[in-house]
Design a protein that fits this description.
113 residues, two-stranded antiparallel ribbon, 5-stranded antiparallel beta sheet, globular, mainly beta
Length: 113
């Protein structure tokens, strides 16, 4: 089992938050797990993509905690996996929808890593 101690909102994710503060709707799109190593010149905030994608997971849970955090979840299944991997990356991708722009959508970005 992996433990992720430094999962943080990326700089791209902060831009989505700024859009939300101006009225855009946050839309989490998927969870991605990976086996790659974060490059030495990056931090969790400066990551823009998962290094080595192992599986994309559809979201089936969105919950707000009493502390004001949000929990997003999905089901990880190993039935389609043909080889073992090290679970080193955990990411949430998201986009926003702009109601004032006739529901135009942003591109999907790495929201947290």
């Amino acid at each position: 089992m992996s433990a992720f101690y430094d999962n943080a909102i990326t700089n791209l994710g902060r831009k989505l938050i700024a859009d939300m503060q101006l009225g855009a709707k946050f839309v989490p799109t998927k969870i991605v797990i990976g086996s790659g190593y974060m490059p030495a010149d990056k931090t969790t905030q400066t990551m823009e993509n998962v290094v080595e994608v192992v599986q994309e997971i559809s979201l089936n849970k969105a919950e707000k905690t009493t502390e004001g955090n949000c929990i997003f979840g999905g089901v990880l299944s190993n039935t389609a996996m043909s080889k073992p991997f090290y679970f080193r990356e955990l990411a949430l991708y998201a986009k926003v929808i702009y109601p004032e722009k006739e529901n135009q959508e942003s591109t999907e970005i790495l929201y947290s890593y």
